[in-house]
Design a protein that fits this description.
Elements: H1 23-35, H2 41-48, H3 54-64, H4 76-88, H5 95-103, H6 110-138, H7 159-172, H8 176-180, H9 188-199, H10 210-226, H11 233-240, H12 244-254, H13 256-264
Helix pairs in contact: 1-2, 2-3, 3-5, 5-6, 11-12
Length: about 260
């Protein structure tokens, strides 16, 4: 038995190689497909008269039809047609099977058909497991499953925790892992963000002046141009002596529209 590219797969599981079609031949095929409502590929192959097999014609049509004719959503009727086609072609597991299945669905590709069938099987398996578990619970064979635990909400910072944070920073500097060991129930990321955005004594919390707004604009534009559009708000905040949240919100509120216009110019 021949082996495919992978050690455990046979050559029949590989996608079929489609022969080349000339431009006029391909256009004629698309016209014939529309004429026969994309159904009778034996007849389409005969009328094409170039020696191409029905499967070759079908594969060419599916690969070259316009994307706007391919639908993403599935209806109940299409699911029923898909199930009937898969049942009819049971036992075959190569790519040609899905090409044939897709031919029975006017606006679906072979890849979509195979993916949809996996979803249907997965949903059935989940429903079967849920029904089996419900039956076992009703029979007293297993206890009823407990409800999932509620997500823990992040506790607010207290005044005492802020004081501990500042003392820890005085002792360890900005080594946030060590700082967090001195603040109960807080991790290094929480300590870092709390200091940079809230309790840093050097932060400006007054209203923005016109000069600061202009400075913010110059820093953001210069940084964005030098870093392919990405903005490091901590870098901006350090230069503005304001929190990163404060800078980002001010930028979004009053400067984003103007900046987009400047980029177009």
């Amino acid at each position: 038995k021949k082996r495919g590219r992978r050690g455990g797969e046979s050559s029949s599981s590989q996608k079929s190689v489609m022969p080349e079609f000339e431009m006029r031949e391909g256009q004629q095929l698309m016209d014939l497909a529309r004429k026969h409502d994309c159904r009778d590929w034996d007849q389409i192959s005969k009328e094409l008269g170039s020696g191409k097999r029905p499967m070759d014609c079908l594969m060419y049509y599916q690969r070259n039809r316009k994307r706007r004719n391919i639908s993403v959503n599935w209806t109940e009727q299409e699911d029923a047609i898909l199930e009937g086609a898969v049942t009819q072609l049971a036992g075959s597991d190569d790519w040609n099977k899905w090409v044939v299945v897709a031919s029975m669905l006017r606006d679906k590709t072979a890849k979509q058909s195979r993916h949809r069938w996996k979803i249907i099987l997965n949903n059935r398996e989940k429903k079967a497991k849920a029904a089996a578990m419900a039956a076992a619970v009703a029979a007293g064979e297993i206890p009823a499953p407990s409800s999932p635990p509620k997500k823990k909400t992040m506790a607010k910072w207290t005044k005492e925790e802020d004081e501990l944070l500042l003392k820890a920073i005085e002792e360890h500097g900005f080594k946030w892992v060590k700082v967090a060991t001195h603040v109960p129930n807080k991790v290094d990321r929480q300590c870092r963000e709390r200091y940079l955005n809230i309790v840093n004594p050097d932060l400006k919390k007054t209203q923005w002046t016109n000069e600061e707004v202009l400075q913010l604009y110059n820093i953001v534009v210069a940084y964005a141009r030098n870093h392919e559009g990405r903005i490091n708000w901590e870098y901006v905040a350090t230069n503005m002596r304001r929190s990163s949240d404060h800078c980002r919100k001010r930028w979004s509120r009053s400067l984003l529209t103007f900046y987009k216009g400047a980029l177009k110019d």
